[in-house]
Specification:
heterodimer, A: about 180 residues, mainly alpha, 8 helices, B: about 325 residues
């Protein structure tokens, strides 16, 4: 009788807790949802150092044309947006903020003092260059863009130089505005 | 019986009154009494009421100057000494100094720039050498050390910051003299930055643009500020770019909160303590450049701001140390 009872108690089919099913369900669901979310994130820039993302953009302007550039820029935007929402550390946040300042200023929080300047001074010029790339108008817009960014950072021309992000942004729009 | 008593009392009173009228002391007493009463009435009516008592703020305004800037400049001993040396060595000619002074007073009056700040900024930038860079291939030239991008802003974006800017050019030269350039072959042309009135006007316009850029941001966020302190920040932006100033603002706002930020743009002592904090400046500039560039740049920014502050701020608001120390 005792033996029978013991066998009966140790049989999982006979005595299955509902929590096992619930945990299994939650595990499967979160795994599927996580995989889905990860696959939806831009693949090109995931895990890439932000500095490299500028290189990718420059390449897409040179080799893939405007369509490729706009697609890659859109991907970079999503990548920067996700970093700004939950940065891993301060360095990553600073890097993403600097990319956003020169390419996607609308992503910066309203409390950021540089946002308004970027929205007023260079965001409209970049949009105008992208609208009419490699035209004489684009060249005029680029000269304005360059002047705004240099005056904004105003480094000693032969000592400090522009920040990397400012310089890379100018390189990209120089290429886009070159006839 | 009662009637007789009353008559007697009246007679006594009348006789006493007639005796009193004959006494000169009674008359004198009445004159003194009435004049004292009138004086009291006049005094009470003219006494200051609570509305006309000046509050402590007004009292302090009366005791201290309303502007942070000095009316006589340079205010610091080291710049005074250097100015005398420049004149003695004939590196600053008297005529040039006078021309700088006259142009400076006109443009600062029109743009409402503190003259002391403008003078000290030009002194810090070029030691008032309006031909600086003429015989070299320097990237920054003349009185206000203009770069080609500063020229671009004056020539192409003048109306972006203040619609009054173009009126100043018309006021000073009678016409639009742009494009302004560093014309080596025509030094006295009004379009040449080597011409003193042109250099002073262009530099004041560039400084005014920095002030409008910074105040517009604060106005938009409804943050109150002291105008004089914002002019000091504008001088920083003139020398090291608006970005350096905004990076410092972001650092203070994020790390110390809105109360401390309010102090930064309102309280001179807090402003000075912040711009003299090398590690804070370096941290702020490290958001823009890597450490090898940020550190020396922060040092330069600190020195520049200290020099301009000690040269332009009224000695009443300065310590002995800040008045005597300066670096190139």
């Amino acid at each position: 009788m005792n033996k029978q009872n013991k066998i009966h108690l140790s049989n999982p089919k006979q005595k299955k807790s509902p929590w096992v099913n619930i945990s299994a369900f939650l595990l499967v669901t979160t795994t599927v949802l996580g995989a889905l979310y990860y696959s939806k994130r831009p693949t090109q820039f995931r895990g890439m150092a932000i500095g490299e993302s500028y290189t990718t953009l420059k390449l897409s302007v040179k080799q893939g044309g405007l369509v490729q550039f706009q697609k890659d820029k859109g991907d970079l935007r999503s990548h920067i947006e996700s970093i700004l929402q939950s940065p891993k550390n301060e360095d990553e946040e600073t890097d993403a903020t600097n990319v956003a300042l020169y390419l996607f200023p609308d992503l910066l929080p309203d409390s950021h003092f540089e946002k308004q300047i970027a929205l007023e001074l260079w965001a409209p010029l970049e949009a105008a260059i992208e609208k009419k790339p490699r035209s004489s108008e684009a060249r005029v817009y680029f000269e304005e863009l360059k002047s705004h960014i240099w005056n904004y950072e105003n480094p000693k021309l032969n000592n400090v130089g522009l920040s990397t992000h400012a310089l890379e942004t100018l390189n990209i729009y120089h290429e886009l505005s070159s006839p | 019986m009662e009637k007789c008593g009353l008559k007697k009392w009246l007679k006594t009173l009348i006789s006493q009154k007639s005796r009193a009228n004959s006494n000169p002391w009674v008359g004198a007493f009445f004159v003194v009494f009435i004049s004292s009463a009138l004086t009291a009435v006049v005094w009470l009516s003219l006494a200051p009421n609570s509305k006309s008592i000046p509050n402590t703020h007004e009292t302090s305004k009366a005791l201290f100057p309303t502007s942070l800037f000095a009316s006589h400049y340079p205010a610091n001993g080291s710049f005074q000494k250097e100015l005398v040396e420049l004149k003695n060595k004939n590196q600053l000619k008297e005529n040039d100094e006078l021309e700088i002074h006259h142009s400076l007073l006109s443009v600062t009056d029109y743009l409402d720039i503190p003259p002391a700040l403008m003078w000290c900024l030009l002194f810090q930038e070029s030691r008032l050498d309006h031909l600086d860079g003429l015989e070299s291939e320097k990237a920054s030239l003349g009185l206000g050390q203009f770069s080609r991008f500063s020229f671009f802003e004056i020539n192409h974006h003048l109306d972006r910051y203040d619609p009054n800017n173009i009126n100043l050019i018309h006021l000073m030269f009678g016409r639009d003299i742009r494009p302004i350039m560093a014309k080596k072959k025509d030094l006295v042309s009004p379009s040449s930055y080597y011409s003193i009135p042109t250099a002073v006007t262009s530099s004041a316009l560039y400084l005014n643009n920095r002030y409008r850029q910074l105040t517009r941001l604060l106005d938009k966020r409804e943050i109150n500020y002291n105008r004089d302190i914002l002019w000091l920040f504008s001088a920083m932006a003139y020398n090291k770019g608006t970005r350096s100033v905004l990076s410092l603002w972001n650092s203070v706002y994020r790390k110390k909160g809105s109360k401390d930020f309010s102090l930064l743009v309102n309280d001179l002592q807090y402003f000075k303590a912040t711009v003299e904090d090398s590690s804070l400046l370096t941290r702020a500039l490290k958001k823009i450049w890597d450490e090898t560039k940020a550190r020396p740049y922060a040092k330069e920014l600190k020195t520049h701001t200290q020099n301009i502050s000690s040269c332009s701020i009224n000695p009443l608001f300065q310590t002995t140390r800040s008045l005597t120390e300066s670096a190139p």
